[in-house]
Design brief:
By secondary structure, the chain is α/β, with parallel strands linked by helices. The chain has a domain of about 60 residues: 2-Layer Sandwich (Alpha-Beta Plaits). It has twelve helices and eleven strands.
Length: about 280
Amino acid sequence: MRLVVQSPAISVAHLAHIHQLSNTSVQFAQISQHAYYLANQANINPAVQAFCATQKIDCAYVENNQLIHKFGLCVMDMDSTLINIECIDEIADMLNIKPRVAEITESAMRGEIDFSTSLKKRVALLKGLDESALQRVMDERLQLNPGAREWIATCKENGIKTMVVSGGFTLFANHVKNLLGLDYAVANTFEIINGKLTGQVLGNIVDAQRKADELVKLRNALGLSALQTIAIGDGANDLRMMSVATIGVAYHAKPVVQTQATYSLNFVGLEGVANLLTT
């Protein structure tokens, strides 16, 4: 394995202490401005993990064969992963009911309530909202998360197909697809009649199982193996999708996701995914 450490706050003193804890003669190699790796690690070192956690450094023990050029597909969540907001919470803010909706969102992301049930509850609260509010949220509040452009550029450079699969909505998912130049986008669709949201969702809801199914379907269509897939998410409804990929990355994620992910990034942006897979 190789030990990958990365953080905007990482220093020479940090690297020296991690090197001492690792008890190795191998020296750190630099991957990027804020990322380094230490080769030939035989075992995961809990002392290194504990130190990195206290110093706000992302730390991962990565299998040597997990390298960027070996992958062919990356499937990503949208809200709070590729972008900085939970779209439905911001839409609810247009009706001054953001706290009510955000509470349901948080509960679903922590895995406390079924996602489909939570989505129906939240969308029902939006009944009567003018569809122009959706465009306002997109124009005024939606921003890409740090490192999103860099990560997608790395995917393109290595021939990795990219897809956003969102429990959010098509207007936003297609916008993000266009912003980043993603290859595919799958999301839910609001029912809108006479310019107003009806409080209903059209078609089959993109829930945890649907996210996993979409990854497998596209993987098979591209003629790839499970070993060539990456999934990135932050909420409990991303766990099934992450479990069917070889690498599941928890990005600034809920605790339940971090405990089940292959790797977690809490302090760097999405460019950190590329650093995990680069030597």
